Amino acid sequence: MTTRVALIGECMIELRHLSADRLALGYAGDVFNTAAYLARSAAPGAADVQFVSVTGDDPYSLAMREHWRTYGVHDTYTRVRPGGKAGLYLIRTDARGERTFQHYRRGSAARELFGPDQPAAIDEAIAGHDVVYLSGITLSIMSPTARDRLVAVLAETRRRGGRVAYDGNYRPSGWPSPRAAADAANAVLAHTDIALPSLDDDRLVHGDADADACVARLRAAGVREIVVKLGADGCVIADAGSTEWIPAVPGATVVDTTSAGDAFNGAYLAARLAGAAARPAAEAGTRLAAEVIGHPGALLPA
């Protein structure tokens, strides 16, 4: 049986520094990265992975959508805005593989997600999926009215028996304040089944002191399945009554940490959809993340 997964977000033009004046062109974005790694990790035919967004009709947007297909990610519910453009970001990495980003997305077509021009048929189709996935960055590019519409779709997804997965991925430049990000996140968490936050992000947005505090807050919000990513310290998995620490893969070579958390999410979700328990799913996530940080850029070759 094929599990239908809709992942909502933005894919952007990625320019990665090879040297001070040489750049490599790619296409990536946090939710798309998770879609690509979910499709990569799932058994053949096990998952129909749909990326839901809005793109332009410029040459880069067209090339971007072809790029999605090479990763096994489909675009049935992605709209094209005539005259629209793709957003852009640049990555620099330091000697330890830690990355910094510069984003240029103000005119990105994806900012029209769940806006007034989105057909109601797309909302209906998303709500019919088995799993709907999104991130805090998805929320940051949307207007408050669009976020309300999205939350209504998430509620309908669950009413029909689907599940919602959420990673509170946080970029401060996308929000007027951490409080605004927390308010938007809390509206989504009220309809979330699987939370996949990074502790560093949730410290900034929600003030969580440690993984235990993060788990307690998410449990109080009604989330039943929790994975708190701790970077080089692994992750913590939790349900309603138990908490367990999973170590990271020891001795992993760090070239570029871009997309490590997205890769973890993709592998974790693929394993869970295949029937794996939370611990082996988290171990699959840590293994893929360890592989990804050993390569430059957000995505391993298709």
Written overview of the protein:
The protein is 37% helix and 23% strand. The chain is α/β, with parallel strands linked by helices and 302 residues long. Strands 4-1-9-10-11-12-13-14 form an eight-stranded mixed sheet, with helices on both faces. The chain has a four-stranded mixed sheet with strand order 3-2-7-8. A hairpin with a 4-residue loop joins strand 13 (235-238) and strand 14 (243-246).
Write the layout of secondary structure elements.
Layout: E1 3-8, E2 12-19, E3 22-28, H1 30-41, E4 47-52, E5 54-55, H2 59-70, E6 79-80, E7 88-93, E8 99-104, H3 120-127, E9 131-135, H4 136-140, H5 144-159, E10 163-167, H6 178-189, E11 194-195, H7 199-206, H8 211-220, E12 225-229, E13 235-238, E14 243-246, H9 260-273, H10 278-292
Parallel strand pairs: 1-4, 1-9, 2-7, 5-6, 9-10, 10-11, 11-12
Antiparallel strand pairs: 2-3, 7-8, 12-13, 13-14
Characterize this entry briefly.
By secondary structure, this protein is of the alpha/beta class. The protein has 10 helices and 14 strands.
